[in-house]
Amino acid sequence: MSLAAPTLERIVDCVFQVAAPMDIGETPLGRRRIIPITSGSMNGPVLHGHVLPGGADFQLLTSATQSFIQARYILQRLKGEQIFIENIGMRVAAPEVIEQINQGRQVDPALVYFRTTLRFETASPRLRWMMESVFVGTGARYPGRVELSFFRVT
Known about the structure:
Helices cover 5% and strands 60% of the residues. It has a single domain, classed as Porin (Beta Barrel), CATH 2.40.160. It is built from one helix and ten strands.
């Protein structure tokens, strides 16, 4: 038996405005940084709205080339519905590229592997389907912002 390969359906493109990282320091697991999410926007074939302040990315830098992403934030549609998102993934690049990112410099997104998986939670009956599908994301880090595109795995 051969099952059909899944495909990806673009759901939304997001731009997150971020504040300077809070460096917790070196822990037994790696260097912990918390990056506050201050605002943002979302536009796409399915969702339109903005990012509410108060979210954050709880990064763990485990080596000179890899960091693990664990972000939590809330999106609010133009229609008022709110969506809580937990976004977990990784960012991998050459040590010199990671160092440039950590210094707040712009790098070519093609030099960075930045992928995530997402879990959505909402009280909206119209958006319940988001809690019943698998989603993946791809991202890019720029000075002062992060851009992510989310896809539903069909």
